[in-house]
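Researcher: Let's do a round of design. I'm pasting the structure tokens now; please hold your answer until I've finished.
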């Protein structure tokens, strides 16, 4: 399915806590385990510093597959360097889509949209120990709304295509979008 076979695997949380690799999208931190690949029907996109292939990409049916041989999220959490973000920001373009929401000025903020047959909801988590004034920029072609009614948290303001609200420290807010 991924167009590659496993070459080597090493599980060693104590040994791989400072693992770094290069990708077509920039440098990246990893951790916990280190797996390398031998591609057959895939293209390498990531390499460990010793040259071994750390990640492969390929088409699969109507979709795409990207596999990396380490825990990139763990690596970024342990060492959140800005240079590592290229890998994460490349995921949606690789899949042929765009972000539904983005924030560029808030750190430690996680925003998600959930929809059912009749309603659309936005929830936002502030992981920081301080309140933050959050500004979210929605993709107005795919997420159209003119009101954000608070279900948890204070009021939100929609101005110039941006949604703004206060996210309390270590807490979440939820809005019904309409």
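Researcher: That's everything. Go ahead.
Model: Designed sequence:
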């Amino acid at each position: 399915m991924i167009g590659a076979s496993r070459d080597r695997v090493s599980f060693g949380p104590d040994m791989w806590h400072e693992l770094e690799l290069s990708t077509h999208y920039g440098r990246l931190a990893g951790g916990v385990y280190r797996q390398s690949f031998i591609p057959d029907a895939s293209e390498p996109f990531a390499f460990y510093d010793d040259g071994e292939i750390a990640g492969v990409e390929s088409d699969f049916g109507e979709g795409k597959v990207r596999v990396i041989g380490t825990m990139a999220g763990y690596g970024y959490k342990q060492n959140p360097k800005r240079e590592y973000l290229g890998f994460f920001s490349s995921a949606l373009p690789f899949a042929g889509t765009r972000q539904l929401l983005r924030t560029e000025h808030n750190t430690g903020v996680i925003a998600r949209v959930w929809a059912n047959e009749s309603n659309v909801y936005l929830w936002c988590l502030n992981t920081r120990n301080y309140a933050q004034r959050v500004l979210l920029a929605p993709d107005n072609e795919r997420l159209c709304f003119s009101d954000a009614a608070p279900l948890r948290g204070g009021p939100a303001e929609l101005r110039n295509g941006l949604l703004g609200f206060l996210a309390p420290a270590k807490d979440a807010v939820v809005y019904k979008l309409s």
